[in-house]
């Protein structure tokens, strides 16, 4: 009798395991065939340079094409009105919301920029508010065409305080080193680089430090007063109007780098960390727009994301990049950096004070 009980017990445990496996398989099949999962998985895989195959591992070409066709960015077809930007005093006594108060409550001993931690249920990031837009500068790799430099290096070599990565570059199989930037680069009012493959439009600043987003040719943008620019996109906010993003815009959920400007001239530099399971998944373009809207961004544009999304503060890698963190961040072609041209107090933040 005892032996029979043991056999029955073994059989019941085995049967339970089989049932659990069956349940897992069925759940998995239901998940991968759900529209919500397809809409997350496919655009996220397709926005990477070397992991597009993950979309085709689970789905055939027709399904991938269908999902991508339903996720797109609708262009605003609106030109930036530079006259709307009125650069003024960064001191405020009245705030429209708690986020604006947070932005203008300056860090102790720092009159140049404010560091803000972004924490959302699915992602984390960092926002830098730069009070004087004349402190924004485009730093370009000194090995342009041969190799890139880390954002840390670009910041320190140009005597900057803060920086985030800028435009995209050739990244064959995920091994690009920032040597060949895509699209155009304008520096000091001159076109210093152009290469096929640029996506989006020109993102930069005029001689009077106003953020200018345009689809014009570089020579025409320079004629308009464009001093510095990189080519990327899409534009996310133009003249206070948010771009309509269908689904996730075809950009998936990923690490993000964004640059924006408020109507009063204050510049916002945003980094979203991602592709780090258990810590931060990443953000969609709509997620980014929602954050920028809180801080009253008037014009905003998406920069190169993914593993390139990097922020440097006072010579230190500040965010957690999805790759290359152990080397101080990935090498890139260029970066938007914050200088201190007026030599204002700029005490470095202590990361221990942030969650």
Q: What's the overall average pLDDT, rounded?
A: 89
| SS class | alpha+beta
Helix content: 25-40%
User: Unreliable segments (pLDDT under 50, ≥5 consecutive)?
Assistant: none
Estimate the strand proportion: 25-35%
Radius of gyration: 23 Å
- N-to-C series of helices and strands: HHHHEHEEEEHEEEEEHEEEEEEHEEEEE
Count helical runs.
8
Sheet with most strands? 7 strands, antiparallel
Query: Looking across the biggest beta sheet, what order are the strands in?
Result: 2-3-16-15-17-12-13
Alpha-carbon distance between the two ends: 61 Å
Number of domains: 2
Structure summary, number of beta strands: 21
Shape: globular
Q: Which descriptors would you attach to this protein?
A:
globular, alpha+beta, single chain, 21 strands, 355 residues, 8 helices, seven-stranded antiparallel β-sheet, five-stranded antiparallel β-sheet
Write the layout of secondary structure elements.
Blueprint: H1 2-32, H2 35-46, H3 53-58, H4 61-70, E1 72-74, H5 98-104, E2 113-119, E3 124-130, E4 136-140, E5 149-150, H6 151-157, E6 162-165, E7 183-187, E8 190-195, E9 201-206, E10 211-214, H7 218-223, E11 226-232, E12 235-238, E13 241-242, E14 244-246, E15 256-262, E16 267-273, H8 285-294, E17 297-302, E18 311-313, E19 316-317, E20 331-332, E21 334-338
Antiparallel strand pairs: 1-14, 2-3, 3-16, 4-21, 5-20, 6-18, 6-21, 7-8, 7-11, 9-10, 9-11, 12-13, 12-17, 15-16, 15-17, 18-19
């Amino acid at each position: 009798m005892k032996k029979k009980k043991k056999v029955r017990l073994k059989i019941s445990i085995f049967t339970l395991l089989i049932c659990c496996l069956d349940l897992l398989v069925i759940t998995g099949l239901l998940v991968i065939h759900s529209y919500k999962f397809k809409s997350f998985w496919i655009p996220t895989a397709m926005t990477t340079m070397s992991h597009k195959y993950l979309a085709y591992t689970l789905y055939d070409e027709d399904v991938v094409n269908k999902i991508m066709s339903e996720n797109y960015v609708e262009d605003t077809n609106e030109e930036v009105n530079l006259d709307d930007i009125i650069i003024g005093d960064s001191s405020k006594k009245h705030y429209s919301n708690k986020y604006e108060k947070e932005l203008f409550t300056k860090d102790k001993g720092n009159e140049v920029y404010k560091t803000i931690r972004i924490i959302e249920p699915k992602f984390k990031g960092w926002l830098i508010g730069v009070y004087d837009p004349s402190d924004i500068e485009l730093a370009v790799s000194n090995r342009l065409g041969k190799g890139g430099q880390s954002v840390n290096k670009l910041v320190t070599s140009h005597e900057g305080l803060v920086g985030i990565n800028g435009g995209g570059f050739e990244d064959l199989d995920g091994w690009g080193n920032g040597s060949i930037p895509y699209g155009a680069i304008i520096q000091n009012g001159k076109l210093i680089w152009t290469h096929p493959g640029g996506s989006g439009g020109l993102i930069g600043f005029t001689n009077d430090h106003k953020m200018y987003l345009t689809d014009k040719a570089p020579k025409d943008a320079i004629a308009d007063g464009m001093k510095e620019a990189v080519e990327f996109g899409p534009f996310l906010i133009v003249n206070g109007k948010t771009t309509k993003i269908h689904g996730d815009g075809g950009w998936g959920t990923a690490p993000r780098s964004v640059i924006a400007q408020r109507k009063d001239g204050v510049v916002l530099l945003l980094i979203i960390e991602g592709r780090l399971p258990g810590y931060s998944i990443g953000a969609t373009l709509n997620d980014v727009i929602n954050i920028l809207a809180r801080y009253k961004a008037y014009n905003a544009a998406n920069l190169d994301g993914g593993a390139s999304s990097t922020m440097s503060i006072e010579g230190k890698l500040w965010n957690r990049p999805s790759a290359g963190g152990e080397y101080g961040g990935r090498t890139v072609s260029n970066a938007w950096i914050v200088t201190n041209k007026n030599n204002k107090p700029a005490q470095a933040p202590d990361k221990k004070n942030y969650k």
